[in-house]
Amino acid sequence: MLSFSTTTITSRMIITTLLLFLFTPTLVSSECELLKYDTNLLEFPLNLEYFEAEYFLYGSMGKGLDSVEPNIAAGGPPPVGAKQANLSPVIKDIITQFAYQEIGHLRAIKKVVEGFARPLLNLSSESFATVINDAFGKPLSPPFDPYANDINYLISCYVIPYVGLTGYVGTNPKLQSPVSRKLVAGLLGVESGQDAVIRSLLYERAKEKVVPYGMSVSEFTDKISQLRNKLGNNGLKDEGLKVSTDIGAEKKIQGNILAGDKDSLAYDRSPREILRIVYGTGKEQVPGGFYPNGGNGALAKRYLKSGKK
Ligand SMILES: *[C@@H]1O[C@H](CO)[C@@H](O)[C@H](O)[C@H]1NC(C)=O
After folding, report:
1. Labelling 158: which of 28, 51, 144, 294 has CA 20 to 30 A away?
2. 139 in contact with ligand 1, CB cutoff 6 A
3. Against a cut of 0.85, is the pTM above it?
4. How far is the CA of 126 from the centre of ligand 1 (A)?
């Protein structure tokens, strides 16, 4: 009896193994094909995730990936000009959490695609001051310092993560593989959460003046959003904390704690639009701003090359 059941189990195992052998390769290879199609789109956001990881790590703790998780940087050059921000305990705590979340995001993307090394990032005060000057269309005096205090740092956090969020919304419908879509949905969920936290913290302070400029937090967000709409060059995809009623939710309200289209769905952006914004040049072929040498990965490199022709 015992030997009979052992034989049955053994033969079942053989059959199962055979079946697996017959079917697994085709399943695996079709998933691989789909993932291969998605690779460039999945790798592209590493450019922004590196930015966010370094900016949040330095801002909260005064050190970056090279100290905290060196392998993730994959030998890319260290960021320029990043440093610890002068933050109150609660903001420091929140930004530290964001920083560790970004390390997870980088790792999660690199589990699915090979990815690339950290690009050169210019996270200097001057780099942010340039964005703010561009947003206001005139140089602020003294130059805006993102590392100076809670409000300035939160305003600087308004500058980039939202751009990543719109990128994930734009990428999702272009993906072929369920594995990629699951990854992007997971990234989008937490990036949106970070955006909501940043916007809520700013919203509480919306009427406060940013010292010493005499302009409110709300005006800063409005100007930054207008600049991104201009640089992205593809319509309205960015909204400050206070908008005219016809842009607010259901055209009913001016408070705008979250940005969204006429149905309050998140706006989407393509890799090109994102590069135009983060380079600060309005051109995906012309690097600059936070990315002095441009982004890494096939998509960013292709645009850079097309600019050199
Ligand atoms: C960083 O940006 C500032 C402001 O645009 C610029 O003066 C500086 O040269 C940049 N540094 C690098 C390494 O690109």
Report:
1. 294
2. no
3. yes
4. 7
